[in-house]
Amino acid sequence: MNIEKTAEVYRKIMEELSRAVIGKNEIKKALVIGLIAGGHILIEGPPGSAKTTLAKSFSKIIGGTFKRIQFTPDMMPADITGFYLYSLQGEPSFIEGPIFANIVLADELNRTTPRTQSALLEAMQEHQVTIERQTFLLSSPFMVIATQVQTGGEGTYPLTDVQIDRFLLRAYSQHPDREEEGRIISSIDSIEAPDIKMVTTTEEIIAMQQLSKQIHVSPAVVNYITSIVHSLRFDPDVLSGLSARSGITIFKCARAFALLDGRDYVIPDDVKRLVYFAVEHRLRVKPEAEMEDITPRMIITRNLDKVPVPKF
Ligand SMILES: Nc1ncnc2c1ncn2[C@@H]1O[C@H](COP(=O)(O)OP(=O)(O)O)[C@@H](O)[C@H]1O
Ligand SMILES: [Mg+2]
């Protein structure tokens, strides 16, 4: 695997994804970045905004195994991780849960109880599950694409800040604009039965993940990342400070971003473009600022404007 080949795989992934989903290029790119940076992605947005379709089509293109978990309030942790089944002779055999796959779609994650959510989030973090004191390693690569239904609705259990922090990137899926709406309608027959090809393999993905670790990040760019994180952390309208995961995420994703662009070094612009995806879900706004309609997005924008960009 090399940089040119990676850029080519990326182009093909985007092309295949576009057979199933019109527009949303930033979310499509976030999925690829998440895969290469080795993290999990959260997709939020209103019903019918192609969240499930995006995740499902992405998994088909990537190769490897895929499982979908449709979360409901009556689900138990064992429905995620798996369980032991005992034969009449008392012989145990482990029945793997749907977490054992390369790509796991955790659909409508906030519709299940905190206990079941924790089972998933723990496995996501540790890349393993422990059942009756036996530890089972998960697949590699392993990526969870979770979707949330709009919070506050009946029968939703919002994820805690600690859980949200586990997601590398968060993308927001919006309703289509007029132009996109037109394209969706006029190509609905092929959208509903897309002819999606697998364009990469798990071996290639692991090679791309390794390659991204070789992308050069200059001290000036590292300094730019830490300046942004500090500026956000101490913003007067931010309620709880950003965890160290924010800076690490920006760093890892910026390397993946540069790689997809066919470069072996990160430029400040890669960082800038990533901050919203990497940080917006982790920022909590003070209630008094919220009353003045200040959003995490606005806070990010004003801090990005404030922090000096290193010259390149
Ligand atoms: N941008 C889009 N491109 C293609 N199809 C779309 C788009 N937005 C919505 N749709 C269509 O809307 C329907 C609902 O999509 P779905 O993925 O189930 O939404 P969600 O999971 O967000 O509720 C699907 O038939 C999907 O093809
Ligand atoms: Mg859905």
Spell out the key features of this protein:
two-stranded antiparallel ribbon; 312 residues; binds magnesium ion; Helicase, Ruva Protein, domain 3; Rossmann fold; 48% helix; alpha/beta; 13% strand; binds adenosine-5'-diphosphate; 9 strands; 2 domains; five-stranded parallel beta sheet; globular
Structural write-up:
With 312 residues, this protein is of the alpha/beta class. The protein has 2 domains: 3-71 and 102-121 and 140-204, Rossmann fold, CATH 3.40.50; 215-306, Magnesium chelatase subunit I, C-Terminal domain (Helicase, Ruva Protein, domain 3). It contains 14 helices and 9 strands. A 5-stranded parallel β-sheet has the order 2-5-8-1-9. Helix 10 crosses helix 11 (244-260). The chain is globular and about 70 Å long. The two termini are 28 Å apart. The mean pLDDT is 93. The structure holds adenosine-5'-diphosphate and magnesium ion. Magnesium ion (MG) binds next to helix 3.
Mean pLDDT, all residues:
93
Q: Outline the low-pLDDT stretches.
A: none
N- and C-termini, Cα separation: 28 Å
Overall geometry comes to: globular
Structural class by helix and strand composition: alpha/beta
SSE order: HHEHEHEEEHEEEHEHHHHHHHH
Say which molecules are bound, naming each kind only once. Answer: adenosine-5'-diphosphate, magnesium ion
CATH third-tier fold name of the largest domain: Rossmann fold
* Total number of distinct structural domains: 2
- The oligomerization state is single chain
What is the number of beta strands?
9
* CATH class (first level) name of the largest domain: Alpha Beta
Strand line-up across the major sheet: 2-5-8-1-9
Rg from Cα:
20 Å
Task: Compute the number of helices.
Answer: 14
* Beta-strand percent range: 5-15%
CATH superfamily of the largest domain: P-loop containing nucleotide triphosphate hydrolases
CATH architectural arrangement of the largest domain: 3-Layer(aba) Sandwich
